Amino acid sequence: MNFKEKLNKENLPSHIAIIMDGNGRWAKGIGKLRIFGHKNGVSAVREAMEGCVEIGVKHLTLYAFSSENWNRPKLEVKALMELLVNTLTKETATFMKNGIRLNTIGKITDLPTHCQAKLKDTIALTANNSKCVLTLALSYGSRTEIVDATKSIIQQVQDGTLKIEDISEQTISNNLSTADLPDPDLMIRTSGEQRISNYLLYQMAYTEFCFLDIMWPEFKREHLFEAIYNYQHRERRFGKTSEQL
Ligand code: FPP
């Protein structure tokens, strides 16, 4: 089926979040080292970005490195950081051609300084692009993000700029690193694992989940279109009954 043709352009998810899982297993499955899987994951990143731009999805967020990923073997961490820098260099043309603006969430100051510098440069270079915001979650963990938001809100109360009775769900959202992004409508995870692994916990309260039985390096834009097609055939009730919608 050509899923792209069947998509309802009036009901596109405005924000898609992805957990790019299975690079290591994919590589192992063909007798290669884990980093070979990560390298091959870059073309899947391009498929996801270009797929979003092709149909008009405005926000794409990729879980590129979790706060827990620091516990991986040192060599793999180093290779992932180098891959990030090389990918940003190589994909700048893709960003510019497609109108993609780069954004990050997570503890960017944990990254090696040359990675931080590359991110900063690419963010500046793409700042005026407006077709799609690509957010990379790097050294990101949602629980830490919620802790930091809590500290910031308490500080505002202590400073007298915020009253306790004015704290709302929106106050929390506004103090998360995703304050400028809409909540994800759709979350896709590859590799067959069905968990959210400390990803956008507060933001995904009403997100539709799609778990794919392929490894990340195998991901093509057609998978994205199929996931969106399935999303469009779900009923999002947000706690209401079918009849109320
Ligand atoms: C999870 O697969 C993937 C990662 C921790 C890294 C994701 C990185 C990329 C796709 C590379 C390039 C991306 C950017 C944005 C530069 P895994 O290794 O945990 O797979 P496994 O569960 O099979 O071990």
What does this structure look like?
- The protein has eight helices and six strands.
- It is globular and about 60 Å long.
- The longest helix is centred in the middle third of the chain and has 25 residues, at 74-98.
- It has a single domain, classed as Undecaprenyl pyrophosphate synthetase (3-Layer(aba) Sandwich).
- With 245 residues, it is of the alpha/beta class.
- Strands 3-4-2-1-5-6 form a six-stranded parallel beta sheet, with helices on both faces.
- The chain binds farnesyl diphosphate.
- Farnesyl diphosphate binds next to helix 2, helix 3, strand 2 and helix 4.
- Residues 20-25, 34, 38, 41-42, 45, 62, 64, 69, 83-84, 87, 136, 191, 216 line the site of farnesyl diphosphate.
Write the layout of secondary structure elements.
Blueprint (H helix, E strand, L loop, with lengths): L2 H4 L8 E5 L3 H7 L4 H22 L3 E8 L7 H25 L1 E6 L7 H13 L6 E9 L1 H18 L9 H6 L11 E4 L18 E4 L9 H12 L13
Parallel strand pairs: 1-2, 1-5, 2-4, 3-4, 5-6
Helix pairs in contact: 2-3, 3-4, 3-8, 4-5
The structure holds farnesyl diphosphate.
